[in-house]
Amino acid sequence: MKTILLLTLVSFGLTACAQMLPARAKELGNGRYMLESSGNIFAKEQTLENIIDKKAKKLCANGYRYETTDASKFHNQTFNYNNQKLPSGYSTMQRIIKCEP
Question: Around Cβ 65, how many Cβ atoms within 10 Å?
C-alpha cells in the first residue's frame, strides 16, 4: 500500500511540469490560428487560458481576438500498477484566434 501511495505522489510530482508547457499553434490561414494548451490534473481553466494568451501575443504583434471561447475539457485516464488501476488525467483548452491587421 505504501508503494502505491509513493508511486501516486511521485507521478503527480513529475506531471506537475506539464502545466508549464507552451501552447501549440496551427496556422489556419488569413491570420487565423488554432491554439491548444494542456495541463496536468491540477491545471485550472484560467491557467490554460493564460498560456494561450501568451502564445497569441507572440503570434499577433498588433493584437488578436478570439473566434471561439470553448471551456477546457478534462480527459480521464487510468494507469495500471501491480494489477491495480489508478486514476489520472489531464486538461486541454483550444481557442481559434484572428490576428488584428
Answer: 10
What is the value of pTM for the model shown? 0.70
Distances (CA, A) of 9 to 14, 15, 84, 100: 9, 10, 16, 44
Q: Considering the chain, what percentage of its residues have pLDDT values greater than 90?
A: 41
C-alpha distances out from residue 55 to 12, 37, 43, 59, Å: 26, 10, 17, 6
Q: What span, in angstroms and rounded, lies between the C-alpha atoms of 19 and 39?
A: 4
DSSP states of 36-79: EEEE-TT--HHHHHHHHHHHHHHH-TT-EEES--PPPEEEEEEE
Backbone dihedral region of 29: left (phi > 0), alpha (psi from -120 to 50 degrees) or beta? Answer: left
